[in-house]
Amino acid sequence: MLPTLPTLPTLPTLPTLPTLPTSPTLPTMPTLPTLPTLPTSPTLPTLPMRTLSGPVPDFRIRAEFEDVKALETRNSDKVASLLEEQANTLSSLEEARARERTLKPGSVLGRRGRGP
């Protein structure tokens, strides 16, 4: 047989607190309507250039490409020609300035073009 445990004294019961009146619930704010999402525009397929009369034939595109390339070549040749002409002109100018410095001070050209 098991020994019996002493019984614990019972605690006094606490007085119950009066219940507080419940506060009125605040009205909830209405939620803003969500804006509809705009549909995305479909991506356009890559098409060859079009004119009012329809697609441009490949041979015309190639011909225009060749024309542009020829124009670029002509322009680059003109630029090279102009740069060469500029170099020649600057060289001539430097030679003329050097000749002017070597002239005697009493000569006509040595007086910077004032004449006799």
Automatic annotation (TrEMBL):
Annotated region described as Disordered, given as residue ranges: 1-55, 90-116
Regions of compositional bias (Low complexity) in chain numbering: 1-53
Composition bias type Basic and acidic residues, residue spans: 94-103
Name recorded for this polypeptide: Uncharacterized protein
